[in-house]
Design a protein that fits this description.
Helices cover 56% and strands 6% of the residues. It contains 14 helices and five strands. The longest helix has 29 residues. The radius of gyration is 24 Å and the shape is elongated.
């Protein structure tokens, strides 16, 4: 197909294409895979770097594969294609893509959107909660200097907490860009999580009202943060009873996002025994917590 007949992509890359990557492709001299083009609009879906490489080589035609779906499905295909091969999307790119897909496909489950964007399901859940929290009222104010600033960073802090848990190798700047926060705020979120605290300070937690729905905390992320704090405590790490307790806590930390999959995986003939064991373990942990709380009250 003639290169001049193609339109640029509705790209999921927030910062656009990377010129250096296109130059690398151009210099390889290899035959590149076909790009994907949205037939109704002639807009590139996947392959902008390859298209730029072809132009750098002075080529006038490029091999294409056509896609005939609607524009939103074309965008979802572009996101999925860019997490499967080529130059990967950044964390901010994937988070922004999830926000857009949630608008166009609100009925999709967190797991379905996670599969399309390369995010963890709980991260998509945090993005969904932030989007829901922002839908009912204005969260920004325009300053005299022309800059838009958030009124409250609570929703972004919760998203940052989830992103930190799911992407421990990501930099503060990456998390900040994905959550729409300053790096210093993300640093504070990380510090609070390491201390077993809620990522949102009490002063920023607003009570729900009729026109402002609450942003529920990510309890799973809070529990994982608390466990990591305990695992670093020498008083537990360096005693046999402490290490045993940490192993128990780690083994029995339950992520509720996995419940549907786990429940579906229980064979019918095992259901009764699993229910009995789950209830017995729950009762045992409740008794453990009450006895520990009683000791704390006695020694306080």
């Amino acid at each position: 197909m003639a290169i001049g007949s193609l339109l640029p992509a509705d790209s999921p890359r927030l910062d656009g294409e990377v010129g250096e990557h296109a130059h690398v492709l151009a210099e390889t001299g290899a035959t590149l895979p076909p790009i994907i083009v949205h037939r109704p609009t002639m807009r590139v879906i996947d392959g902008m770097h390859r298209l730029q490489a072809a132009r750098l080589r002075g080529e006038r035609r490029i091999r294409v594969r056509f896609y005939d779906g609607d524009e939103e499905n074309a965008f979802i295909l572009a996101v999925h294609a860019n997490i499967a091969h080529g130059m990967p999307l950044s964390l901010a790119d994937r988070t922004a893509a999830a926000e857009r897909i949630l608008v166009s496909r609100p009925q999709w489950s967190d797991r379905m959107i996670a599969a399309a964007t390369g995010l963890a399901p709980r991260t998509v859940g945090a993005v969904r909660r932030r989007s829901s929290a922002q839908a009912g009222w204005s969260n920004t104010r325009l300053g005299r200097d022309g800059r838009v600033r958030p009124v409250s960073s609570a929703a972004g802090r919760r998203l940052a907490g989830t992103l930190l848990a799911d992407n421990p190798s990501a930099s503060l700047r990456e998390i900040a860009k994905a959550a729409g926060l300053a790096p210093s705020t993300v640093r504070d979120v990380r510090r609070r999580l390491h201390s077993g605290l809620d990522p949102v300070p009490g002063s920023q937690r607003e009570p729900p009202s009729a026109d402002q729905p609450p942003t529920p905390p990510d309890q799973g992320a809070d529990l994982r943060a608390a466990l990591r704090t305990l695992q670093r405590d020498p008083a537990l790490r360096f005693t046999e009873s402490g290490r045993r307790l940490l192993r128990w806590l780690d083994t029995h930390l339950i992520d509720t996002d996995d419940w549907p999959r786990l429940i579906e995986g229980v064979p019918a003939h095992c259901t009764g025994m699993v229910i009995a064991l789950a209830r017995t373990n729950a009762a045992a942990w409740q008794n453990f917590a009450e006895r520990l709380d009683g000791r704390r009250r006695t020694t306080a």
